[in-house]
Each structure stands twice: as C-alpha cells, then as structure tokens.
Amino acid sequence: MPKALQDVTVLDFTHLLQGPFATQLLGDMGADIIKVERPGQGDLFRTMTFKNRWVGGTESPNFLAWNRNKRSLAIDLKAPEAKEILYRIAEKADVVIQNFRPGVLAKLGFGYEDFKAVNPRIIYCSGSGYGDSGPYVARPGQDMLIQGLTGLAAATGRGDGAPTPVGSGFADQIGAMNMVYGILSALYWRERSGEGQEVKVDLMSGLLQHQHQEMLWVMNFEENLERPHSSIGHPGMDAPFGVYPTSDGWVTIAMSPYKKLIGVLDRPDLLVYDEPQLLFDKRDEIWAKIAEETRKWTAADLLDAMLAVDIWCGEIKRHLDVVDDPQVRHNGLITTYEHARAGTVKVVGPVVRMSATPPAIDRPAPMVGQHTEEILREFGIGEDAIGDLEARKVVAQAE
C-alpha cells in the first residue's frame, strides 16, 4: 500500500533518543531515512543497554528501539569529501534533522545555511537541550536533567521522599514528537509556498509545555503544588485519586464520585470527608483509610466491583504483563521483525492508524554503514569512486 510520506527523503544526523525517535516516526510513515553515522562506531546508542544485556548477544535494545525503517550511511564528517557527498544528497532531500549540541554541525559545514545554499527548499530541524543560545547552551541536554530543571521530578513521587524522575525518557520523547510536528507543518507550508525553513526544538521548552496545566495553576496562584505524603497520584489532586494496594497487587483510582467508592468499600463512616476542601486537605489521611480497605480485596474483585458502578479504575501492570494485556493484543501493538544479527526482535509497532496510507515496519534497525554503497549509487556516485572512498576510509560499508 502507499505510504503518506513515501516521497519524502530525510537526511538524518541524529543520535541517542530524541532525534532517532523522530526520524523513526517519519520512517514508519514511509519517509526514506538516510541515517548518517560514524564509520565503525555509529550512533552512541549502539554501545548502550540495560543490565548489560544485548539482543541476539550483540545488538543494543536501546538502538533497536528507535532506528527501524532507516538506511545507514557510514561517513567521516570531517573528511573533505563528506561535504560533496552529503550536499549531493541534500540537493534532492526534503528534510535535514540533527540533535547535536548547538553549533557542532555548523562548524563542520552542515548547518542550515550550508544546506539552504544547496537546496533552498530544504527543511532543517534542530533538536537541543535548551535552545541554541542562553545561559544553559553549553550544558548537556539529557532527559533526567531536563525533568529536574522543569519541575517534573519535583512534582512526582511522595512528599516524604526524594523527587522522582519518570521511568522513561519522557523529555526526549516529547522532544521527538515536537520535531515531527514542526517538520510536518513545514512540509505543508512548503507545498503551498515553495519555501523551506529552519525548525528548532528544545527539550526544556517541550517538557515545560507538556506541564502546562500545572504551570498555569502555579503561575496564576503563585503557589507551588506540594507532593502528597501518600500514593495520591498528582500533587494537585484530592482523594481518592491515586494508587492503592490490594491483597495481590495494586490498582489505580482516578476522578470518581467519592460516595460511590465508599459504597463499594462499605465504609459509611468515611463519608465524613465528603467535602471538596477536606478531600484535598486530608487526602493523605483519606488515602490511608481507603488503603486499609482495598488491601482486603484481590485486584480483580475490587476492579469488578468498582467498574460495576462506573468508578474510573485500572490495574497496575509491569511491562512484561503489558505484553499479554488483552487490549494490547487486540490492537496488535506487539509485533516482530527479523534482524541480521539479533534474529527475531519483539517490538512495539506503529501506533497511528491510517485507512489509506497505513504505517508499517519495512526495515529493521540497520547495522552501521549497511546501506552506504546503495545510497551512494542512488545519488550518482560510481563504483570506482565508491571503492576509492572506502579505501581511504571516508565511507564504510557494514561487514
């Protein structure tokens, strides 16, 4: 079937998580992603994993997670020939995307103005930690650091414990979504105007925007929201919103009529708290009393009882349990692809549904330089020239 972005070519200088996730999303929609990597080494994420475990014994799960539907071009960016090759690709490319520290690629001759001179219709998207100027511009823009700087870590966890980062690369992934949002908007504008442009995204701004309801409250009332000392699920919410223990696990209870929950638990004495200000002021005390009751139930029985009266609730599952969740299976979210070294790799597939141009996994994550020769041939570089470039280690093909 056709793909929505099948005529879009992306020259991808990204590494680690933010940029690679953005280009993977574009690749899932059919864009031709030419991933530029260092010969032999490639993306730094190829060397990183959790618990020193490697898929198929050799491949980084961190890299595999964000780099499907791409081709790898291994090229030394400092070699004089690199400009000639990459500018030739840029003449026909639609998008250049990079997430190096501000100024790094421009010093090598791969900034927006360099590519604009080659192709005025080019869309050049940069992702950074804090923007390309200002007091933090030289700081490392890593996900957990951004969570701390924007207030997210301080708003997460129990009030009697340390600030708690989110258990995923949330800032990076929000940054990736903003990159895609900016790139698609720029492509649409170019279709109408014929003009390319520069798009800039930074992690700090993106994560701050995604806490807008909390920020708006704090700024307008000039007061911080304090974390509860219990498992109430948000610093601004009242009881019973939160996480509760059962005899065999945990459940979540979201915005629900307090009276209905007290009815399920058969504790009419707790109705004394049923007043909006008390439900906030006494939320930790209320949480403890409700938790005493939820511990008497199995998670399944409690969920059945709450769902029967339309209380908003759900299970707490660990990642391995999620794989077998009936709704996850129904939606077909877990799939596989075959990798030359890693073998069969289990992955979460594309999540956007499109009737005419559905996304798909057409390529596994590439090996470093796996497509170098293929890409160079496509852009008119002959066999003798390719052989010479490889001999002088300007480019490299995967072994």
Explained architecture:
With 399 residues, the protein is an alpha/beta fold. Helices cover 38% and strands 14% of the residues. The chain has 17 helices and twelve strands. The strands form three sheets. A seven-stranded mixed sheet has the order 6-5-4-1-2-3-12, sandwiched between helices. Helix 1 packs across helix 7. The model has no long low-confidence stretch (mean pLDDT 97). This is Crotonobetainyl-CoA:carnitine CoA-transferase CaiB-like acyl-CoA transferase. Keywords: Transferase. InterPro entries: CoA-transferase_III_domain, CoA-Trfase_fam_III, CoA-Trfase_III_dom3_sf, CoA-Trfase_III_dom_1_sf.
